[in-house]
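Researcher: I'd like a structural prediction for the single chain below. Treat it as a standalone chain; there are no partners to consider.
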Amino acid sequence: MKSASILRKKISGSDPVFGVLATFHFWPGLVEIAIESGMDFLIIDLEHLTHNHERVAEACAIGRRADFPVLIRPPSSEFTQVRLALDLGPCGMLIPYVESVENLNEVRDAVYMKPRGRRRPGGLGNAWVRDHDYNYSTWLREVEDDLIILPQIENKKGLDNVDAIAKDPLTTAMAIGPYDLSADLGICWEPENPLLVQAFAQVKQSAANVGKNMWVIGDGATMMNRGFNFICLTEAITQLQTTLTQMVTEGRDAAQGTKQTPSDGTGEIPI
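Model: Treating it as a single chain, here is the predicted structure.
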């Protein structure tokens, strides 16, 4: 998994590592857009919507061939959901709502073959193994050794167990789900609330204590000012809507300003 190895190297350093999440709409061409825009990774979100699996597998294949990290967020940490997500061919997964090591044990069973787990590989994800060499040592070398697992802390129980989750060998880097976590903390979407800011810091510290990084989602400048460098900058369609809204607003403001500008009497059309 060259793309996973590339991302692992990046998140082990201190330079900014930027990515994008695709939740509301997804098409394989978004991988090329992410690459061309200079992103370091793309996460396809299957937790809230079931995107067409053939398209998701195609996107993962584009990432594999381009050495660009494409990850999946499965619907849950449940064995079958994680196993099927890995069969689509991502180089890693953002695991939602991880509360304990027991959740990670189920993920471990789903992503590792025997004797370490119970995975039964299949689907287009098998393309990570070249020349149909399905010996266990090949799976270990080509898939399992580099696979990226990012457990999301999204409630108080997860916070209580964050140290154990962070130090688990399966965890590549820690992650946070700020919206659901804020709701569970009783401060539903108050992003600057000290309780939520402290929760970010707690997860970050638990990861740092075992030499690991932490994935966050949010404004790049804000997150970097808080000491984070592994950052999902935005959700793709949300950003498109925000940008279009801003363009329309600025255009209408400019038009209003033009109407209010007195004529200079030259008869020229302002362009």
